[in-house]
Amino acid sequence: QVQLVESGGGLVQTGGSLRLSCVLSGRTFSTYSMGWFRQAPGKDREFVAAIGGSDGVTYSADSVKGRFTISRDNAKNTVYLQMNSLKPEDTAVYYCSAANLLRAVLGARGDYWGQGTQVTVSS
Known about the structure:
mainly beta, seven-stranded mixed sheet, four-stranded antiparallel sheet, globular
């Protein structure tokens, strides 16, 4: 059974930091590209960041460049999203996604999705 489980969300003040984690089980993690997406109330789900499985190449949305960093630890089957300098507009449910192909992750066509973790940034 394939599972993606996110953790690390919470309530933080503007300017604060959080680190999200997402563990993939049931598949060979190192062969999967991983991504983070977010959805704020009343808005569509949007891409945040992605990382390739084979080469670790990273991509991030312009809105988070310089503040958020995606990374992975293949030994722990885990992808991380380090979020610094958080803003109220970062408030959303954050979802983890996995796919064999990086372009599928980038296109929000992941094979697997987590249940989401809430991030709330207070002003």
